[in-house]
Automatic annotation (TrEMBL):
Keywords: Ligase. One of its GO terms (molecular function) is acid-thiol ligase activity. Residues 36-198 form the AMP-dependent synthetase/ligase domain. It comes from the Bacteria. This is O-succinylbenzoic acid--CoA ligase. The keyword Plastid does not apply.
Amino acid sequence: MSPPAPVTIPPDTTADAVRAALAPVLAGERELALGTSGSTGSPARALLRGADLRASATATHELLGGTGRWVLALPPGHIAGVQVLVRATVAGVEPLITTGAEGSFDPTRLAADLTTAREADPTTRTYLSLVPTQVARLTEDPATACAVTAATDAVLVGGAALPAAVAERAATAGLPVVRTYGSTETCGGCVYDGLPLPGVEIGRTEAGRVTLTAPWVTRGWLIDDELVTSRAHAGGQGARLEDAPPAPDGTPRRTLVTDDLGEIGPDGRLRITGRADDLITTGGVKVAPGPVADAVGCLPQVAECAVVGAPDETWGQRVTVVAVPRGERLPLATLRDALREALPASALPRAVRWVEAMPLTGPGKHDRGALRRLATEPDEVA
């Protein structure tokens, strides 16, 4: 007899529908085939077992210091939202479903809901999961940020890098931010503030790509209903799975070789430096887009941004900023002048494209393919 078909969850669905869909998965009766939010490549669904989701949730609680009330302020159909509901089930505490889970995100309502929950039950730890865009909106009003600080024990932030300017505002408000790194393939975040969760090992390939080894790494992807263990395409880019030695207790493990580039410091902390397919070669010089985006994001006239390479007849590629303005659009010449002390000349943006909102493939995750298309039609070129 063939195994039952995996459970699927549409990306745009309700929290109640997700909880119902997760019931047979967490009971061990069926696998979950969850769409990945990868920003390039073919659509794929990672296969996850209920035991894997539970093990990841248990490791998260162990690192955070215990179970608690989880707050769902993210779309429940993506891995970050799914894991909030899984952790709530493992903790045995009813989740607080608030703004952002179903409908647009309202920082004021979030603060009010958290304050009410903390006043009703001041002894239960409260955990919130957000993406950087939500943190940016939340910290625009110091009073709102301070209210959330007073009502939470940890704010997990993942899905994308947290811009330096936003991180500074969060720190000023005392927001208990925990930066997470992971993916659908690893049942969500598995590296917290640069350190792996219990049961997780981090490493690097010779090419500098980050590897994640754990018992709860996916066993493969479904692409057009075919199970594959590699998403590599022409040029060798793309995540892949490898066998790994079992854990000391004999538990089987797998390794996910990501497309992210990173460094591991002397203290064992992982720092993501970019993606293998993101480096921009301009005038023969390789430019990592991350530091450029950090510098641009610190400008008060920029609400959100990304940096990509666009074809250029003279330079090969030109460093291009795609950004959401805060107020009036900044002229490219002024933007370049504002960055000269922070960036070398080779990394200064040579083009800018202003947009009303950043294209996304999932909560807080930029659609790099769409960004590259936008970059080919800049508003200004130096």
